[in-house]
Amino acid sequence: MTQHAAPAPGAPAPRSPRAADRHRSWVTGGIVFAGVLLLCNGALAVLQGIAAVAEDDVYARIGSYVYEMNLTGWGVLHIVLGALALVIGYGMLKDLAWARFAGILLASLSLVAQFLFLPYAPVWAVVMMALDVFVIWSLASRQEEAGTGL
Questions:
Q1: Buried b / exposed e across 113-142, counting CB within 10 Å, b at 16+?
Q2: What is the pLDDT along the chain (150 residues), one digit of tens a residue?
């Protein structure tokens, strides 16, 4: 009969293999969801940028704002970030390592850009900021399998 030693007081309880599998599937699901979110975010950012460049009357005019930029400038910024998000989101769905790191960087840039865009579309910017935070979390919590490198 095999006897198991009791864990030391204060020591963390060992995780069962099923708990580890559940955590891994949650993170993997988060990675796929983050890739899809980046694809959608990229497409929407491109459309948002086109709307800002094509017709300045789409967004309400605001008073003086510390981070003021004309809407054409914001439109170009959104088009560039959106195009990058499309490429990186596709790379994440293909499970490419560079896409995860680029996704963290892009989601961070998008978070800052949405913060600066708050006066033009406050509800949209807050929703996009929340999605960017989720993307950053899911990409940062991904752990490689033992022996697969990177």
A1: bbebbbbbbeeebeebbebbeebbebbeeb
A2: 555 555 556 655 555 556 555 555 555 677 788 888 889 888 988 988 888 888 666 666 666 666 667 778 888 988 998 999 999 999 988 888 888 899 999 999 989 988 887 877 788 889 889 988 988 888 887 655 544 444
